[in-house]
Structures are given as structure tokens and as C-alpha cells.
Design brief:
By secondary structure, the chain is α/β, with parallel strands linked by helices. The chain is built from nine helices and eight strands.
Length: 239
């Protein structure tokens, strides 16, 4: 199975490096992506928006030989959901890592502090305590040293969706900050935060309690959780 890994804000393909070993060892083809504007701190980011990132991932899907599994962390969850809408017949499963599907008209986060065309990694006190669970001082320093400013347009642009076949694609939610039981309660209550998720017809939930960056705080466990979801997908495809 081909697995395409889409990083969250401020991160490039290398952010998945400690997550991929169990996927590679199991014989899967793994493709972590670096999205436009995230190539380096000095890369141009003017004019790069959400659709550019969706199109970049869709191009990776188009280059694959068969169905793919998409994995999106944080803001990458909104991106892979846009790809589900664009390529519903090419995606075997979508895996949302501490994220979820972003519905029509939603934005990833238009409250982050902006510097021109960039959104630099904010000070830690901008984040909620739940975001930072297990992200100790050493990991925070590592993250800040590798962080690349996010293109403003990706965070601020509205999601545009057209194909309801996206709801038929099997999905897995790897719940970190909020337990899956809480997500289910929000879905049952009709929360706008989970409205798009509630419309997905085949969703598995996996709890991986930690903060918002499990690829740094619990990378081995994240790799195993992704692998389990991929193998369920491969079994279903084979069947």
C-alpha cells in the first residue's frame, strides 16, 4: 500500500522520520511530503493558499500506481480532506492525526499571529496546555529549531468541497489531545467542530493520549497506530 504523509503547520517531510520505520518494515511504500512554501525558512510563501497544498497532495495521489492511504497531521487533516473531495476514487483510507475533516467554508486557523505572508511558529504560551502535553523542553527546542513559517493563505483560506463521495472513504481518527469518547459526544450533540466528521460513513477511532505533536512525543506508537489502520485497509481491499 502507498502511504502519503502530510505534515501539519511549520513542518516538512522530515517531521515523520521517527514514525515511518514500522510502515517501511511492513513493506509499504511511504511518501512523506514537504508542501509548497515549507521547503526552507527562506522559501517564498506569498500567494500560497490552501488549494495549492491540496493540489500538491492530489498530484502525489495521481502519481501513485494504485489506491493510497492519506495521513494528515493537524492542519494536514484539512488538506487530505480536500484531496478526498478531489480524488474520492483514489483514496483507500484517510487517517487524521489529532485532526479531522474540515467542512465546506471552514478555515484551519485564522487566529494565528501573522508576519506578512508568513505565520511563524508562535510562542508556546499561545497554545493550550493540552497541545503541549509530553512536549518537554528538549522537544520544544528541537521543534523550534526546525520550524518553518507557514504560508498565511493555507491557514486563512476557506475550504471548498464539491463531491459528497468523500463521505464514503473509510477514515481513522487518531485522537491525542481529546479522547475519542469526547469526540463522539460532540458528534452526537451536533457540534459544528465535528459536523463534517459526523457525516463520514465509516470511521474508526484510536486513542493515543499525548499532546498535539505525537510524531515527536510518541512517534513509535503513532507509527504502529497508522500501520494498524493501513493493514485493516489492505485486508478490506484484498477482500
Amino acid at each position: 500500500m502507498e502511504i502519503i504523509l502530510v505534515p501539519g503547520f511549520w513542518l516538512d517531510a522530515s517531521s515523520w522520520s521517527e514514525v515511518t520505520p514500522p510502515l517501511v518494515d511492513a513493506g509499504h511504500r511511504v511518501r512523506p511530503l514537504t508542501l509548497p512554501g515549507l521547503e526552507s525558512v527562506d522559501a517564498p510563501r506569498a500567494g500560497i493558499g490552501l488549494r495549492d497544498h491540496i493540489d500538491a497532495v492530489a498530484a502525489a495521489v495521481d502519481s501513485a500506481e494504485g489506491p493510497v492511504v492519506l495521513v494528515g497531521h493537524s492542519g494536514g487533516g484539512a488538506i487530505i480532506h480536500g484531496v478526498l473531495d478531489a480524488r474520492p476514487d483514489r483514496v483507500a483510507r484517510a487517517i487524521y492525526v489529532d485532526s479531522g475533516p474540515l467542512g465546506e467554508g471552514g478555515v484551519i486557523n485564522d487566529e494565528l499571529p501573522v508576519d506578512g505572508d508568513d505565520i511563524p511558529l508562535p510562542a508556546w504560551d499561545v497554545f493550550e496546555d493540552a497541545d503541549l502535553v509530553d512536549l518537554d523542553d528538549e522537544l520544544r527546542e528541537m521543534f523550534r529549531n526546525r520550524a518553518i513559517p507557514q504560508p498565511k493563505g493555507v491557514a486563512f483560506d476557506k475550504q471548498r468541497l464539491n463531491d459528497e463521495r468523500r463521505y464514503e472513504v473509510p477514515a481513522t481518527i487518531i485522537a491525542c489531545e481529546f479522547p475519542s469518547g469526547m469526540l463522539r459526544e460532540w458528534m452526537a450533540a451536533g457540534s459544528p467542530f465535528t459536523a463534517e466528521l459526523a457525516r463520514m460513513k465509516d470511521v474508526d477511532f484510536v486513542d493515543l493520549p499525548t499532546g498535539h505533536w505525537p510524531q515527536f512525543t510518541r512517534p513509535a506508537e503513532l507509527g504502529e497506530a497508522i500501520l494498524a489502520a493501513v493493514e485493516r485497509t489492505a485486508d478490506a481491499t484484498a477482500g
